[in-house]
Amino acid sequence: xxxxxxxxxxxxxxxxxxxxxxxxxxxxxxxxxxxxxxxxxxxxxxxxxxxxxxxxxxxxxxxxxxxxxxxxxxxxxxxxxxxxxxxxxxxxxxxxxxxxxxxxxxxxxxxxxxxxxxxxxxxxxxxxxxxxxxxxxxxxxxxxxxxxxxxxxxxxxxxxxxxxxxxxxxxxxxxxxxxxx
Length: 181
Hints:
- By secondary structure, the chain is an alpha+beta fold.
- It has two domains: 3-47 and 64-97, no CATH class; 107-175, Alpha-Beta Plaits (2-Layer Sandwich), CATH 3.30.70.
- The protein is built from five helices and four strands.
- A four-stranded antiparallel sheet has the order 2-3-1-4, with helices on one face.
- A hairpin with a 4-residue loop joins strand 2 (136-142) and strand 3.
C-alpha cells in the first residue's frame, strides 16, 4: 500500500459530530499526524527515513521502472475502489427510493434540525430516533438546509413526542412551516 493511500486512510475529516465525512477533493493533499511527525523528524535529523534500518537487512537497489509500475498499479487499485464505492452508493440510493409508505401516512412533515451536519453520523441518528416514534415513515434528509422530511399517520403521530425524542438524542428540532406562495 502506498504512503499516500495510508496517509489518506489515516486522516479523519469530521463535522461537529466527529464522524468521518467525505475524503478531500482531488488534488487536495491528504496529510496525517504521522506524516507531520515524519516531516519534523526528517528536518531535525536531515535523514530521509523516519525509522532506523535493521543492520542485518540488506538494502537492495530499486529500479526506476519498478517504481513507475507500482504507481500505475496503485492508481488502478484506487480507481477500482472508487468505482466500487460509486456502484454501492447507487444501489443504496435505489433501495431507498423503493420504500413503500402505507396510504394512512398522508401528511408530510418537515423539521428543521440545525445540529444535523452530515449524512454519515448525524442523519442516521436522527433517522433512527424518528423511526422510534409511532406514525413516522419515509424519512429523508436535506443536509445542506439542515432539515428532515417524512410522512406521518395523523392517527398515530404525536409531534411533541418526535420533538422530545430528537432533543433527547442531542438534535433539537423545530417544525418548519411550508412556504406560502
